[in-house]
Amino acid sequence: MNTPLPGNLLDNAAAVHRLTVLTLNVHKGFTFFNRRFILPELREAVRATGADLVFLQEVHGSHEQHAERHPTWPQTPQYEFLADSMWPQFAYGRNAVYPQGDHGNALLSKFPISEYDNRDVSIHGNEQRGLLHCRLQVPGHDQVHAVCVHLGLREAHRQRQIHLLLELLDSLPPDAPVIIAGDFNDWRLKADAVLSEHLTEAFGSPARSFPARLPLLRLDRIYLRNARASSAKVLAKYPWSHLSDHVPLVAEVAL
């Protein structure tokens, strides 16, 4: 993660009251069924959205075998490659570690990240999952919180992870803007029923985002507290339909 800007520069910056937020499960940089490594094309598509905050799931920190096999594999971690020169601040939460490398959640930000913490919410070690919590320095606000989420595939695990997410939410200042986004794997909408008691979903109700070629399941979400979405879209058309197994969600958020 890069060094935050000095406080005096932030104090002199114009207050920011509107953010563009994007969330995407990048599927480790591969297309559906892992047929092709697509990360360079994905980076151009993400850059074209102009998002201020980008929430990423299933992003590689490293993978030795893939690096040897694919000529376009970046020399830097995937999240740093995606950040490039457009998002000067980034944070990575490593969730899964294996002999070849690791992957997890990441946040790319146009605003300074003053601190971050990756909370392990794995249940019994079956699926390695985490909540990447970042505190942002956004001009005009004491603090803004962003939480990048990737929950488990099992219903019982997700329910426990939602409880841990709500514990994190309760620990944050009650009047601070909070943006929670990611892949909730909540196709039964049971997690949404709980979260909607505490947060506002950017689309009003969860949008269809999986599988990318024909989105049917409502897996990906953007939730807000002390903020509201003025518009929200599913980016389901080409090229997005061919860049991952999920399609991204993007929302204009008013703070």
Automatic annotation (TrEMBL):
Q: Does the keyword Hydrolase belong to this entry?
A: yes
Q: Say if the entry is tagged with keyword Nuclease.
A: yes
A Pfam entry, by short name: Exo_endo_phos
A GO molecular-function annotation: endonuclease activity
What are the record keywords, sorted? Endonuclease, Hydrolase, Nuclease
Task: Determine the domain of life of the protein's source.
Answer: Bacteria
Q: Which InterPro entries match?
A: Endo/exonu/phosph_ase_sf (IPR036691), Endo/exonuclease/phosphatase (IPR005135), GPI-anchor_lipid_remodeler (IPR051916)
| Domain Endonuclease/exonuclease/phosphatase stretches | 22-246
Annotated transmembrane regions = none
Origin organism is: Pseudomonas farsensis
From the Swiss-Prot or TrEMBL record, give the protein name: Endonuclease/exonuclease/phosphatase family protein
